[in-house]
Design brief:
Number of strands: 2
Number of helices: 12
Radius of gyration: 19 Å
Largest sheet: 2 strands, antiparallel
Order of helices and strands: HHHHHHHEEHHHHH
Strand order of the largest sheet: 1-2
Shape: globular
Low-confidence stretches: none
Structural class: mainly alpha
Length: about 290
């Protein structure tokens, strides 16, 4: 069942990338879409949570560390999505997804060395192959200036923030999952992401939303929510040191293939070699 949740999480993540790519191509305001996305995700996850069904008989009061984790992840989630969307448009889907997925070293390290997960020798080799394949699949970036900020920094920011987000979900699953449900925790993250986004829009005086932006936001919110929910479900059933490489490598492979088929990307020989190694790593990790 863990592999099913991994497949569903991957499908949702790939859908997010396609929606954001379409939004950028149509010159829509991505921040407004993300604000609608987090509001929709917050409401759906809140109404689906066990805590909401029990209200008002039971009103769990999360501890300060759990609230702090949700606040930090809320900020990281929306910041990462904004940078990710810009990176897809400026440096390409393949580079953006690869940078996002290379961040798996953070949650893997936490899973193995902090929470003491134990895996077989071949799976360690699969993790090493996964990291190597991702390095091979990163194409050379032709940088250009964005108000004095180089495009080359966009994948770096994605790498750091995605690592923080995935590690935060692993910490929740390991430390706090007995306190509140997955839906209630994710609703908290999305709520704080929504507040950050609204604050930015208010400062810019851009609070007007078009119907198209709202539709894109709701669509993104549904798949964005369940991308996180399914990932947490998978982490409950399988070691994080296995889940994260599987999710990340599969996303890069499928994202690259989608880029070839839909967006006419042209991988180099090095990238095709990375794809082949990635397939081997997936076989080792699943076996």
């Amino acid at each position: 069942m863990g592999l099913v949740y991994i497949f569903l999480s991957i499908s949702c993540s790939l859908t997010i990338a396609q929606i954001l790519k379409l939004a950028e191509n149509r010159k829509l305001n991505v921040l407004k879409i993300l604000v609608c996305n987090y509001l929709a995700g917050f409401l759906i996850s809140l109404f689906n949570s066990a805590e909401f069904e029990m209200f008002p008989e039971v009103s769990p009061v999360p501890g300060i560390w759990l609230v702090s984790l949700a606040v930090v992840l809320g900020i990281v989630f929306i910041a990462n999505m904004v940078v990710y969307s810009r990176s897809i448009d400026r440096v390409g889907m393949g580079v953006s997804i690869a940078a996002m997925r290379m961040s798996l070293i953070f949650p893997i390290a936490v899973s193995l060395f902090v929470f003491g997960e134990a895996i077989g020798g071949l799976k360690y080799f699969g993790i090493i192959l996964a990291l190597g394949s991702l390095l091979l699949m990163v194409p050379r970036i032709k940088t250009k200036s964005i108000s004095g900020f180089s495009d080359a920094w966009l994948p770096v920011l994605i790498f750091i923030m995605t690592g923080m987000a995935d590690t935060g979900l692993k910490v929740y699953e390991q430390v706090f999952s007995e306190q509140i449900s997955e839906d209630f925790f994710v609703s908290g993250i999305f709520f704080f992401s929504f507040l950050v986004g609204v604050g930015i829009l208010l400062k810019r005086k851009e609070i007007h939303f078009t119907f198209t932006e709202i539709v894109y936001g709701i669509a993104t919110g549904v798949v964005n929510l369940y991308s996180s929910i399914f990932l947490i479900y998978a982490l409950k059933l399988m070691p994080g040191s296995i889940v994260f490489p599987l999710v990340n490598v599969s996303l890069v492979v499928l994202g690259t293939l989608i880029g070839i088929g839909i967006w006419k990307d042209r991988p180099s020989v090095k990238q095709w070699s990375g794809l082949a190694i990635a397939v081997i790593s997936i076989i080792l990790l699943v076996g």
